[in-house]
């Protein structure tokens, strides 16, 4: 469906509103929520909520708060001057009367404008309450807000209206803004009017909206609905509503094994099949932080012990996807197509929410999280949080408090690997760089489109390999990447050039490849990850493996097959070089032209280097293609609510051309993020550093003698190097300097009732192993028999041995 109003629009606008959320000194202006008597719990809650949405703890005369408050005043002044109540609208450019009310795309637009009208009133109410807006306590502004509330109540948002368009506008977008205004202007609104507004909320958001944990009442949506119910109870003085909101949060807390929610491995899913830590997950985290803070110390405090799952998820689920201020696009779903909010601007609210959530956690957790946030915020040189124009002032104030806290030592980026089998994702951190991998399988969609968003994200689940440097390339995917990149050549992916329609495969993540073998194995430092790839609405098939090591990612592909009458390509990388794009590019020591357009077929290339980014090594030499080009697109091309202004960026792209309708094509390369030209050339010259043990449709494996490492993805059982497996599995063996070794095994298919692995290496004894593993050391070999691995959900099983 297409919509001019969506969660994205609401959240973006809310960010501007709460960007208003500023002054540390809350003005008791006419219409303000008055100080609550000690025996008025609802008044106390109104005071708390006002502080949460307006902000506290900073000076309205200090930057960046002073400018933000002035901007809020200017926006509120615009809405005040242009408000013109009429039949079917409150503003001429926001007609909400639907001539043919239903749930088609046109009705989505009309319902969105209805919610937008409430959000504009919220802007005006905040400008009235805040200091430094130029409209603080302005009676004309106050009267306009009251007039607007009455007009919308009479015209559209009342207990006699049947909803049309987007459910979200009626159940979350409009009532959240309405109830915020009711809190901010509580004393100025007549009791009879407040009762009508509450009745309208009860009509559109009845108690039954949270009666079952299904449909649109799960995860972030459930938290949003609970916020509406809680504030409805606060405004209406109804204890049962607040209690219902508190209790209805409980289904959000437990770890899940399917569907929406948080998983034990740190995954977060929304819409059943979409990894969404960086978008819906952000909403859920922020909403829970607000509700925990609102109800803390009251009769309705959230005391469910399972809320600790959310606290644990700060470091288990959210932190792994935050890197120097940004949240990785691999877990942002269709939000990647929203031009006004990039990966950094999505990361900053998560950081602020972690600070807020810490107020309800233990002292140790709070201190640890604040130190994490300080590190992320200090290192975000590309888009400093305090300069984020879409970040609310309440969030700004929280991050500012952390940056100003001299007792905190910022936490450095950790080194290590995290594998998320429940959402087919992985992250890898090394000193100087980080990477993220996105895949798809029978449970996790290729990509999500919906509401006219992310129309060309088709291949983001085809093994897209994102990477960033610590002090370079932090804007790689932030700087108009998505509307300008070739969507058939996303870095790391193997894709058919078969032309796809916008939104191909269907809305809301319904397109799932019929494959099971997706996942891998990790020792928390290195990893072997594999994807059995089947293309979206194409005949493409491939086996793809990534071996995440200390300074490189080794990438193998085999069994690449297609019968679409189209070329099939594997993109080594596709670097966004910005508007100028003159980074030097060298192949085997030969400098290539920096002017665009330029293209070439590089025959027998052993290495390539892109200055300011890193290096690429092709073991044994390879024929790859390269192009330096200027690409122009519009956000509207990938998001029907996006800007129509053209944007241009220059790209340097490297890819393997497997030809039209290939059979059993292969590729192999190393990615070396941040490597110099000299280090890249040296790695290519060291033919013994990497041994490719197998790269076939049956197995893919490598050995790196200097690391003591052997890693194999067994698509089928067989023998590779010193390893023999009798069934599909992923294996990584590392020999250590102390005479021990670790053997890491997983079943990415989650189907094995038994697995036997033999390592042809002399082993003296087994030091430790899972209880379900039996072992034997005979004839100089180690034999491991694994029990039922289907219940391990693709998790790594580790056996430690002492070498003979």
Automatic annotation (TrEMBL):
One of its GO terms (molecular function) is carbohydrate binding. GO terms for biological process: carbohydrate metabolic process. InterPro entries: Chondroitin_lyas, Gal_mutarotase_sf_dom, GH-type_carb-bd, Lyase_8, Lyase_8-like_C, Lyase_8_alpha_N, Lyase_8_C, Lyase_8_central_dom. Residues 1-35 form the signal peptide. Keywords: Lyase, Signal. Residues 691-756 form the Polysaccharide lyase family 8 C-terminal domain. The keyword Signal applies. GO terms for cellular component: extracellular region. The keyword Acetylation does not apply. This is Polysaccharide lyase 8 family protein. It comes from Streptomyces parvus.
